[in-house]
Design goal:
Layout (H helix, E strand, L loop, with lengths): L1 E8 L5 E8 L2 H10 L3 E8 L2 H4 L7 H7 L5 H16 L4 H8 L6 H15 L4 H6 L7 H13 L2 H52 L11 H15 L1 H19 L2 H13 L3 H22 L4 H8 L6 H15 L4 H6 L6 H13 L2 H57 L1
Antiparallel strand pairs: 1-2, 1-3
Length: 411
């Protein structure tokens, strides 16, 4: 059965679009008319398995057809698919059932093509692997393990839980940091306006005076002049910094230097190590629990580590494990990985319950990160207010000091 993308007019004369399954173009038009839709455009969507399309589509094709799908949408589809399989639906029928229920056009197209690929003899994991921009290596390997063990519906349920938990943790951290970042941005903006527009108008009063100005006022005038002259450089400086940061991080040596610097910083370095450890142990534990071999799981987790130092550490761990060594020993010898996490992994390897210990480690560090971020943001807010108060107070003092001196001279 083929898949068609249509544009049509409904009974109210409004344009509608979507995707429909049919055996032929004529059958697709008949189906649409039965739904009181009158097609104006009907395009057959060819399956990549049928057309010989490569895994990596062209730039424009990939951008147009397979834009990034949100984690929440992918999680919802995964959970619905697990529910249908648990209810006894065949895989092809379950995927086909989800196509019209999916709101995202991108996901509709992907699911339609995945269904076609399965019907043509591909495994579910192979069909998903055709779309690496939508399905991560973790997702594909866990599905492959579920198919091999006959527990696909259970694996999909765990995948949905895994995706939702990771997204929830990310959103909690972002929500905790949003208010302090907003306050800092507003405060910096107010400071620029004060020094660029407000202060120059006030200090011009003292420019024609023969009286020696106090040092705070002289400093304020100098700073204000600098801001007024080079305001464009101050505004562009953050953008230039981030551009340079990303350009340097694209190189292997630059990425390692920056990542090593980030995890070595006094306060934020420890927090970043905990975040990386939680992400690593959660992903590795989920893969191992669903039957993915250790070496395969490690090779997958190195790509989602997000830190070049840990990436190289996992590569070293892969070699050690392949030669019969233990993962915990390799991690324990590196300062880039929290010692508590490496000790818990060693205990799991010794007891033969590495999967459970990885899950416990992830839970522990995720809670620790959330607690640390919450505590830090509760301190950052009053600190920002205090700093802004000091800065504004210093500006007011620098303006008022010459006024007080002139008043004393007049008296």
């Amino acid at each position: 059965m083929a898949v068609f993308e249509y544009k049509a007019l409904n009974t109210k004369g409004r344009n509608v679009s979507g995707i429909i399954d049919a055996e032929s173009t004529a059958a697709a038009k008949t189906k649409l008319r039965q739904k009181d839709l009158f097609p104006t455009s009907l395009i057959k969507i060819e399956s990549p398995a049928r057309t010989g399309e490569k895994k990596s589509p062209g730039f424009f094709t990939g951008f147009r057809l397979f834009a990034k799908v949100s984690s929440s949408e992918l999680s919802m589809i995964t959970r619905q698919l697990s529910t249908l399989l648990s209810a006894g639906f065949p895989l092809v029928k379950a995927v086909a059932t989800l196509v019209p229920q999916t709101k995202s056009v991108t996901m509709k197209r992907v699911l339609s093509r995945v269904k076609d690929a399965i019907e043509e003899g591909s495994s579910f994991a192979t069909a998903l692997g055709l779309y690496p921009n939508v399905f991560s290596p973790i997702f594909i390997n866990m599905v492959n393990a579920g198919e091999s063990s006959g527990t696909l519906e259970i694996v999909l349920e765990r995948l949905a839980d895994f995706t939702e938990n990771r997204e929830d943790s990310k959103k909690k951290i972002q929500a905790s940091l949003a208010y302090p970042v907003l306050m800092a941005a507003i405060g910096f903006g107010v400071l620029i306006v004060l020094l660029t527009y407000v202060v120059p108008g006030i200090v011009n009063i003292f420019s024609d005076m023969n009286h020696q100005l106090p040092m705070p006022t002289i400093i304020l005038i100098s700073v204000s002049t600098f801001f007024k002259t080079f305001w464009w450089a101050i505004v562009l400086a953050p953008f230039a910094f981030f551009m340079l940061f990303f350009l340097v991080r694209k190189t292997r040596k630059g990425a390692r230097f920056i990542d090593n610097l980030l995890i070595s910083m006094p306060v934020t370095g420890g927090l970043l190590k905990k975040i990386i450890a939680a992400r690593f142990t959660r992903t590795l534990g989920s893969l191992l629990e669903n039957g993915v071999p250790m070496l395969t799981a490690l090779n997958i987790t190195k790509s989602i580590a997000g830190n070049r130092v840990l990436y190289d550490l996992i590569l070293k761990a892969c070699d050690t494990v392949e030669q019969g060594g233990e993962l915990g020993d390799v991690l324990a010898r590196s300062s880039a990985f929290p010692s508590l996490a490496s000790q818990m992994i060693k205990i799991g390897e010794t007891s033969g319950e590495i999967e459970k210990m990885l899950e416990k480690t992830a839970d522990l560090f995720e809670k620790d990160v959330q607690t640390t971020v919450t505590a830090a943001t509760s301190l950052i807010e009053p600190i920002i207010i205090l700093v802004m108060g000091i800065v504004v107070g210093a500006i007011i003092l620098a303006i008022c000091l010459p006024i007080f001196e002139i008043n004393q001279l007049i008296q």
